[in-house]
Specification:
By secondary structure, the protein is mainly beta. Helices cover 5% and strands 59% of the residues. The protein is built from one helix and 18 strands. Strand 1 and strand 2 form a beta hairpin.
Length: 217
Amino acid sequence: MRRLHATGRRERFVASGVYPAAGGLQEFWSVHEVGDGAHFIRVDRDGRGCRGHSLLQEALRNAGGAFERVDQQLYGPGGRPVARLRCTRFQDRVELEQEDEAGQRGTELSVGRDCLFLMPGILLAGMALSQATGMQQSVNVMRIAQVGDGFTWEQEILRARCGPTARLTAPAGVGDARACAWDGSDTQFWLDPHDVTLRLVDDGGGIELCRYARRHD
């Protein structure tokens, strides 16, 4: 698993796993505790096996389940860095710092206090969905997407829905999970009690979490 920054000495392991996505893309991830209940999450969406783009992500998630900061580095099919995007959440605004072939530039957007980040990939998207299900209302979402050699973003108003907890058998093991989705979407995220996606189901089939490791206190 590749990382933007090495694990710090004060970080404490929480969990890790792999999503063997279709087409050769794999998503490796790890979660470490960094104090005050916050988690630092690293994701490697590795597209080298299918000669596609790769995306490295780092996210700081606070004790309430909200992403405060997300840093993303995009690599082209040949492994060359092509774009970087840093997103920082403040009380009522989001700061975006972008760097690509067009140079460096910053954008500041006014958003509501409950605005949440929705990022590419499986792990971070599932965590954002879980955060939205706890709000019991439509939420303001900053959706970040990877398009070609760069990133796009837009604000949307979305509502999450979630089914009852059920017993799920998956490669990651047997445990409780609930099927959650955004209204209007057929993509289902089966989330465990820790907001980790155990199974993703969409029109293209299903992806299941493998090599799931978790610290047991």
